[in-house]
Amino acid sequence: MHRFLADGGNEVFCLLNMSDANSDRSRSHGIRNELIRRQSEKVRIPLIQQPTTRAEYEKDLKAVMAHLKKEHAVDTGVFGDIFVREHKTWIERVCHDMDITPVFPLWGMDTEVVMNGFLKEGYKSIVISVRKNKLPPSFLGRIVDEAFINDLRAIPGMDVCGENGEYHTFVFDGPSLADVVPFEKGEITENETHHFLQLR
What we know:
This protein is an alpha/beta fold. It has 2 domains: 1-108, Rossmann fold (3-Layer(aba) Sandwich), CATH 3.40.50; 110-200, putative n-type atp pyrophosphatase, domain 2. Helices cover 32% and strands 22% of the residues. A hairpin with a 3-residue loop joins strand 7 and strand 8 (194-199). The longest helix has 16 residues, at 57-72. The protein is globular and about 45 Å long.
């Protein structure tokens, strides 16, 4: 979103988060809905949180798109994909079905360039999940900074932006935010594939 707005002349009507219909968390990264609401307040952009399930995800996403297009003349969606072609293709298909123009401001960029820009702009984020076959749980709770990136660079095949799902983060400060998003570190949990740091 930062890069989209920095291009000039662009406005963001709302943020869209697909949340899990059976919990209080986002579908994609398991972040508590309340934390995402806090982010929205700090960037001063309204948030839509659409409950959904894995089976109903596409249908519910299209329903929100249809509403935004009809009621608010929203005709563009902005997505943060960098190089995962399969996900970009899926987004393009869904947007095409709904007559929405997908925009990918980061697509095709070198992930080192993306990360360097993220840090240079002053954004701060904390690692909240790691894939078990990629990173140890000791990476949970680390702030994404130059030391963190250097540790990633030392691991063969590791993408510094975690574009292959190696890790996920929660952004809590930066130039797009009015001030720091408040949060507290909670317990560490796990499932078959990931370790998670619970934030509250």
